Amino acid sequence: MITIGALSKRTGVNIETIRYYERIRLMPPPPRTDSGRRLYGAEDVRRLTFIRHARNLGFDIAAIKTMLTLQEVPEASCEQVSRIATDQLDAVESRIRRLLGLRTELTRMIKECDNGKVATCRIIEVLDDSSGHPDGP
Amino acid sequence: MITIGALSKRTGVNIETIRYYERIRLMPPPPRTDSGRRLYGAEDVRRLTFIRHARNLGFDIAAIKTMLTLQEVPEASCEQVSRIATDQLDAVESRIRRLLGLRTELTRMIKECDNGKVATCRIIEVLDDSSGHPDGP
DNA sequence: GTTGATTCTGTAGTGGCTACAGGAAGTAGG
DNA sequence: CCTACTTCCTGTAGCCACTACAGAATCAAC
User: Fold this and answer.
1) Is the pLDDT of residue B62 over 90?
2) Which CATH number does the domain housing residue A28 bear?
3) Least packed by Cβ within 10 Å: which of B11, B116, B133, B137?
4) Which residues, in sequence order, are CB contacts of B59 under 8 Å at separation 6+?
Protein backbone atom coordinates (compact mmCIF):
# COMPACT_ATOMS: atom_id res chain seq x y z
CA MET A 1 0.00 0.00 0.00
CA ILE A 2 1.37 3.42 -1.00
CA THR A 3 0.59 7.01 -0.11
CA ILE A 4 -0.98 9.54 -2.42
CA GLY A 5 2.42 11.11 -3.06
CA ALA A 6 3.86 7.80 -4.22
CA LEU A 7 0.82 7.15 -6.39
CA SER A 8 1.24 10.60 -7.88
CA LYS A 9 4.88 9.95 -8.72
CA ARG A 10 4.20 6.49 -10.10
CA THR A 11 1.41 7.63 -12.41
CA GLY A 12 2.43 11.19 -13.16
CA VAL A 13 -0.92 12.48 -11.94
CA ASN A 14 -0.93 15.50 -9.64
CA ILE A 15 -1.89 14.83 -6.01
CA GLU A 16 -4.63 17.45 -6.14
CA THR A 17 -5.94 15.84 -9.29
CA ILE A 18 -6.07 12.42 -7.63
CA ARG A 19 -8.17 13.84 -4.81
CA TYR A 20 -10.31 15.62 -7.39
CA TYR A 21 -10.87 12.30 -9.19
CA GLU A 22 -12.01 10.80 -5.91
CA ARG A 23 -14.44 13.67 -5.37
CA ILE A 24 -16.02 13.18 -8.78
CA ARG A 25 -16.10 9.39 -8.23
CA LEU A 26 -13.66 8.60 -11.02
CA MET A 27 -11.39 6.95 -8.45
CA PRO A 28 -12.87 4.97 -5.54
CA PRO A 29 -12.35 6.26 -2.01
CA PRO A 30 -9.31 4.37 -0.74
CA PRO A 31 -8.80 2.98 2.77
CA ARG A 32 -7.05 5.27 5.23
CA THR A 33 -4.35 5.02 7.87
CA ASP A 34 -5.29 5.64 11.51
CA SER A 35 -4.40 9.28 11.02
CA GLY A 36 -6.57 9.57 7.92
CA ARG A 37 -4.04 9.35 5.10
CA ARG A 38 -5.09 7.63 1.91
CA LEU A 39 -3.57 4.26 1.02
CA TYR A 40 -3.50 2.94 -2.51
CA GLY A 41 -2.85 -0.47 -4.01
CA ALA A 42 -1.88 -1.98 -7.36
CA GLU A 43 -5.40 -1.71 -8.77
CA ASP A 44 -5.42 2.01 -8.07
CA VAL A 45 -2.13 2.38 -9.93
CA ARG A 46 -3.62 0.53 -12.89
CA ARG A 47 -6.85 2.49 -12.89
CA LEU A 48 -5.15 5.87 -12.57
CA THR A 49 -2.66 4.96 -15.30
CA PHE A 50 -5.57 4.08 -17.55
CA ILE A 51 -7.18 7.41 -16.75
CA ARG A 52 -4.01 9.32 -17.48
CA HIS A 53 -3.49 7.66 -20.84
CA ALA A 54 -7.08 8.22 -21.81
CA ARG A 55 -6.86 11.89 -20.76
CA ASN A 56 -3.64 12.24 -22.76
CA LEU A 57 -5.55 10.99 -25.76
CA GLY A 58 -8.19 13.64 -25.14
CA PHE A 59 -11.01 11.45 -23.85
CA ASP A 60 -13.27 13.37 -21.50
CA ILE A 61 -14.08 12.22 -17.98
CA ALA A 62 -17.52 10.91 -18.93
CA ALA A 63 -16.05 8.70 -21.66
CA ILE A 64 -13.40 7.41 -19.29
CA LYS A 65 -16.02 6.63 -16.66
CA THR A 66 -17.95 4.61 -19.21
CA MET A 67 -14.87 2.70 -20.34
CA LEU A 68 -13.92 1.92 -16.75
CA THR A 69 -17.42 0.63 -16.05
CA LEU A 70 -17.34 -1.53 -19.16
CA GLN A 71 -14.03 -3.02 -18.09
CA GLU A 72 -15.69 -4.38 -14.99
CA VAL A 73 -17.69 -6.79 -17.17
CA PRO A 74 -14.88 -8.60 -19.05
CA GLU A 75 -17.23 -10.81 -21.06
CA ALA A 76 -19.12 -7.78 -22.39
CA SER A 77 -18.60 -6.83 -26.03
CA CYS A 78 -16.14 -4.04 -26.54
CA GLU A 79 -18.32 -2.52 -29.25
CA GLN A 80 -19.19 0.37 -26.98
CA VAL A 81 -15.53 0.96 -26.16
CA SER A 82 -14.79 0.99 -29.85
CA ARG A 83 -17.57 3.48 -30.43
CA ILE A 84 -16.25 5.84 -27.76
CA ALA A 85 -12.81 5.67 -29.35
CA THR A 86 -14.25 6.29 -32.81
CA ASP A 87 -16.21 9.29 -31.56
CA GLN A 88 -13.03 10.61 -30.02
CA LEU A 89 -11.19 10.12 -33.31
CA ASP A 90 -13.95 12.03 -35.11
CA ALA A 91 -13.66 14.86 -32.61
CA VAL A 92 -9.89 14.96 -33.00
CA GLU A 93 -10.18 15.02 -36.78
CA SER A 94 -12.68 17.84 -36.76
CA ARG A 95 -10.45 19.83 -34.42
CA ILE A 96 -7.52 19.22 -36.79
CA ARG A 97 -9.54 20.47 -39.75
CA ARG A 98 -10.53 23.59 -37.88
CA LEU A 99 -6.98 24.30 -36.76
CA LEU A 100 -5.62 23.80 -40.27
CA GLY A 101 -8.09 26.42 -41.43
CA LEU A 102 -6.96 28.77 -38.70
CA ARG A 103 -3.35 28.18 -39.63
CA THR A 104 -4.01 29.15 -43.24
CA GLU A 105 -5.78 32.32 -42.15
CA LEU A 106 -3.12 33.31 -39.66
CA THR A 107 -0.29 32.60 -42.07
CA ARG A 108 -1.88 34.77 -44.75
CA MET A 109 -2.52 37.59 -42.31
CA ILE A 110 1.01 37.56 -40.99
CA LYS A 111 2.55 37.40 -44.46
CA GLU A 112 0.60 40.45 -45.57
CA CYS A 113 1.65 42.48 -42.56
CA ASP A 114 4.58 44.74 -43.49
CA ASN A 115 5.30 45.66 -39.87
CA GLY A 116 4.37 49.22 -40.58
CA LYS A 117 1.93 51.35 -38.63
CA VAL A 118 -1.07 50.00 -36.80
CA ALA A 119 -3.26 52.27 -38.93
CA THR A 120 -2.45 50.30 -42.07
CA CYS A 121 -1.87 46.90 -40.48
CA ARG A 122 -3.30 44.12 -42.58
CA ILE A 123 -3.74 41.88 -39.55
CA ILE A 124 -6.05 44.41 -37.95
CA GLU A 125 -7.79 45.05 -41.24
CA VAL A 126 -8.55 41.36 -41.66
CA LEU A 127 -9.92 41.12 -38.16
CA ASP A 128 -11.98 44.28 -38.62
CA ASP A 129 -13.42 43.28 -41.93
CA SER A 130 -16.57 41.21 -41.74
CA SER A 131 -15.58 39.62 -45.06
CA GLY A 132 -12.22 38.56 -43.67
CA HIS A 133 -13.23 35.00 -42.84
CA PRO A 134 -12.30 31.89 -44.86
CA ASP A 135 -15.68 31.43 -46.55
CA GLY A 136 -16.03 35.10 -47.41
CA PRO A 137 -15.90 36.69 -50.90
CA MET B 1 -28.12 53.69 -31.67
CA ILE B 2 -29.21 50.07 -31.39
CA THR B 3 -30.21 47.78 -28.54
CA ILE B 4 -28.17 44.86 -27.29
CA GLY B 5 -30.42 42.44 -29.15
CA ALA B 6 -29.76 44.20 -32.45
CA LEU B 7 -26.03 44.32 -31.77
CA SER B 8 -26.14 40.61 -31.01
CA LYS B 9 -27.89 39.85 -34.30
CA ARG B 10 -25.59 42.12 -36.30
CA THR B 11 -22.38 40.65 -34.92
CA GLY B 12 -23.43 37.09 -34.17
CA VAL B 13 -22.33 37.46 -30.57
CA ASN B 14 -24.68 36.20 -27.86
CA ILE B 15 -26.37 38.85 -25.72
CA GLU B 16 -25.08 37.26 -22.53
CA THR B 17 -21.60 37.25 -24.02
CA ILE B 18 -21.81 40.95 -24.86
CA ARG B 19 -22.70 41.75 -21.25
CA TYR B 20 -19.91 39.44 -20.15
CA TYR B 21 -17.46 41.35 -22.34
CA GLU B 22 -18.59 44.55 -20.69
CA ARG B 23 -18.04 43.06 -17.24
CA ILE B 24 -14.49 42.05 -18.08
CA ARG B 25 -13.87 45.47 -19.71
CA LEU B 26 -13.38 44.09 -23.20
CA MET B 27 -16.29 46.25 -24.35
CA PRO B 28 -16.80 49.73 -22.90
CA PRO B 29 -19.93 50.40 -20.83
CA PRO B 30 -22.40 51.91 -23.31
CA PRO B 31 -24.82 54.77 -22.64
CA ARG B 32 -28.28 53.77 -21.47
CA THR B 33 -31.86 54.75 -22.15
CA ASP B 34 -33.88 56.39 -19.37
CA SER B 35 -35.04 52.95 -18.34
CA GLY B 36 -31.50 51.59 -18.23
CA ARG B 37 -31.23 49.70 -21.52
CA ARG B 38 -27.89 49.65 -23.26
CA LEU B 39 -27.48 51.60 -26.49
CA TYR B 40 -24.73 50.80 -28.97
CA GLY B 41 -23.31 52.67 -31.95
CA ALA B 42 -21.26 51.95 -35.05
CA GLU B 43 -17.96 51.83 -33.15
CA ASP B 44 -19.37 49.12 -30.87
CA VAL B 45 -20.38 47.08 -33.89
CA ARG B 46 -16.87 47.41 -35.28
CA ARG B 47 -15.18 46.54 -32.00
CA LEU B 48 -17.37 43.55 -31.33
CA THR B 49 -16.94 42.30 -34.89
CA PHE B 50 -13.19 42.53 -34.42
CA ILE B 51 -13.48 40.58 -31.18
CA ARG B 52 -15.59 37.89 -32.79
CA HIS B 53 -13.17 37.41 -35.67
CA ALA B 54 -10.22 37.28 -33.34
CA ARG B 55 -12.00 34.74 -31.11
CA ASN B 56 -12.86 32.66 -34.17
CA LEU B 57 -9.16 32.59 -34.96
CA GLY B 58 -8.49 31.35 -31.45
CA PHE B 59 -6.96 34.50 -29.94
CA ASP B 60 -7.55 34.68 -26.22
CA ILE B 61 -9.16 37.64 -24.51
CA ALA B 62 -5.85 39.05 -23.23
CA ALA B 63 -4.40 39.08 -26.75
CA ILE B 64 -7.52 40.74 -28.10
CA LYS B 65 -7.41 43.35 -25.35
CA THR B 66 -3.82 44.16 -26.29
CA MET B 67 -4.63 44.42 -29.99
CA LEU B 68 -7.58 46.70 -29.28
CA THR B 69 -5.43 48.93 -27.13
CA LEU B 70 -2.76 49.09 -29.85
CA GLN B 71 -5.38 50.10 -32.40
CA GLU B 72 -6.10 53.19 -30.38
CA VAL B 73 -2.64 54.53 -31.30
CA PRO B 74 -2.78 54.37 -35.12
CA GLU B 75 0.73 55.70 -35.60
CA ALA B 76 2.22 52.99 -33.38
CA SER B 77 4.17 50.22 -35.05
CA CYS B 78 2.20 47.06 -35.62
CA GLU B 79 5.19 44.94 -34.64
CA GLN B 80 3.45 43.94 -31.42
CA VAL B 81 0.29 43.01 -33.28
CA SER B 82 2.38 40.91 -35.62
CA ARG B 83 4.02 39.21 -32.67
CA ILE B 84 0.69 38.34 -31.07
CA ALA B 85 -0.46 36.84 -34.35
CA THR B 86 2.79 34.90 -34.72
CA ASP B 87 2.48 33.55 -31.19
CA GLN B 88 -1.07 32.49 -31.98
CA LEU B 89 0.14 30.76 -35.14
CA ASP B 90 2.78 28.93 -33.11
CA ALA B 91 0.14 27.83 -30.61
CA VAL B 92 -2.13 26.62 -33.40
CA GLU B 93 0.70 24.70 -35.02
CA SER B 94 1.67 23.00 -31.80
CA ARG B 95 -1.94 22.02 -31.19
CA ILE B 96 -2.09 20.62 -34.71
CA ARG B 97 1.03 18.54 -34.11
CA ARG B 98 -0.38 17.18 -30.87
CA LEU B 99 -3.72 16.32 -32.45
CA LEU B 100 -2.04 14.60 -35.40
CA GLY B 101 -0.20 12.43 -32.87
CA LEU B 102 -3.45 11.63 -31.11
CA ARG B 103 -5.08 10.78 -34.41
CA THR B 104 -2.34 8.29 -35.24
CA GLU B 105 -2.67 6.67 -31.82
CA LEU B 106 -6.44 6.49 -31.93
CA THR B 107 -6.48 5.14 -35.46
CA ARG B 108 -4.06 2.38 -34.55
CA MET B 109 -6.01 1.46 -31.45
CA ILE B 110 -9.30 1.30 -33.27
CA LYS B 111 -7.86 -0.72 -36.15
CA GLU B 112 -6.50 -3.32 -33.76
CA CYS B 113 -9.81 -3.71 -31.96
CA ASP B 114 -11.64 -6.75 -33.30
CA ASN B 115 -14.87 -5.84 -31.54
CA GLY B 116 -14.61 -8.92 -29.39
CA LYS B 117 -14.85 -9.07 -25.63
CA VAL B 118 -13.79 -6.27 -23.32
CA ALA B 119 -11.37 -8.71 -21.68
CA THR B 120 -9.24 -8.88 -24.81
CA CYS B 121 -9.94 -5.40 -26.19
CA ARG B 122 -6.84 -3.83 -27.66
CA ILE B 123 -8.15 -0.33 -27.01
CA ILE B 124 -8.32 -1.02 -23.30
CA GLU B 125 -4.98 -2.79 -23.37
CA VAL B 126 -3.30 0.19 -24.97
CA LEU B 127 -4.80 2.53 -22.40
CA ASP B 128 -3.81 0.21 -19.58
CA ASP B 129 -0.27 -0.25 -20.73
CA SER B 130 2.18 2.34 -19.48
CA SER B 131 4.20 1.84 -22.66
CA GLY B 132 1.17 2.66 -24.75
CA HIS B 133 2.05 6.30 -25.33
CA PRO B 134 3.47 7.70 -28.59
CA ASP B 135 7.05 8.12 -27.39
CA GLY B 136 7.16 4.71 -25.74
CA PRO B 137 9.25 1.68 -26.83
C1' DG C 1 13.07 17.60 20.20
C1' DT C 2 13.06 20.06 16.25
C1' DT C 3 13.02 20.66 11.63
C1' DG C 4 11.05 19.93 7.16
C1' DA C 5 8.26 17.09 4.17
C1' DT C 6 3.88 15.20 3.44
C1' DT C 7 -0.87 14.97 3.91
C1' DC C 8 -5.45 16.50 5.29
C1' DT C 9 -10.00 19.36 4.47
C1' DG C 10 -12.31 22.96 2.40
C1' DT C 11 -12.74 26.71 -0.52
C1' DA C 12 -11.88 29.60 -4.44
C1' DG C 13 -9.88 30.59 -8.79
C1' DT C 14 -8.95 29.68 -14.00
C1' DG C 15 -11.19 30.81 -19.19
C1' DG C 16 -14.87 31.89 -21.76
C1' DC C 17 -18.73 31.67 -21.67
C1' DT C 18 -23.96 29.95 -20.75
C1' DA C 19 -28.15 29.46 -18.06
C1' DC C 20 -31.10 30.54 -15.11
C1' DA C 21 -34.39 33.51 -11.63
C1' DG C 22 -37.20 37.20 -10.90
C1' DG C 23 -38.36 41.55 -12.17
C1' DA C 24 -39.06 45.92 -15.09
C1' DA C 25 -40.03 48.04 -19.33
C1' DG C 26 -41.16 48.16 -24.18
C1' DT C 27 -44.40 46.88 -28.26
C1' DA C 28 -48.63 45.21 -30.71
C1' DG C 29 -53.27 44.19 -31.06
C1' DG C 30 -58.02 44.51 -29.46
C1' DC D 1 -56.69 51.22 -21.46
C1' DC D 2 -55.76 46.32 -20.98
C1' DT D 3 -53.51 42.28 -22.04
C1' DA D 4 -50.09 39.41 -24.01
C1' DC D 5 -45.67 38.91 -25.67
C1' DT D 6 -40.99 40.12 -26.18
C1' DT D 7 -36.90 42.28 -24.78
C1' DC D 8 -34.08 43.72 -21.40
C1' DC D 9 -32.15 44.27 -16.60
C1' DT D 10 -29.16 42.46 -12.45
C1' DG D 11 -27.13 38.94 -10.03
C1' DT D 12 -25.79 34.47 -9.30
C1' DA D 13 -24.49 29.83 -10.33
C1' DG D 14 -22.92 26.25 -13.44
C1' DC D 15 -19.84 24.15 -17.06
C1' DC D 16 -14.94 21.46 -17.71
C1' DA D 17 -10.86 19.66 -15.72
C1' DC D 18 -8.19 20.98 -13.01
C1' DT D 19 -4.97 24.09 -9.87
C1' DA D 20 -3.90 26.85 -5.93
C1' DC D 21 -4.16 28.20 -1.90
C1' DA D 22 -4.89 28.39 3.76
C1' DG D 23 -4.30 26.44 7.94
C1' DA D 24 -3.83 22.37 10.55
C1' DA D 25 -2.17 17.77 11.54
C1' DT D 26 1.02 14.08 11.13
C1' DC D 27 5.24 11.76 9.64
C1' DA D 28 10.35 10.76 8.97
C1' DA D 29 14.99 11.87 9.92
C1' DC D 30 18.58 13.59 12.60
Assistant:
1) yes
2) 1.10.1660.10
3) B137
4) B67, B84, B88
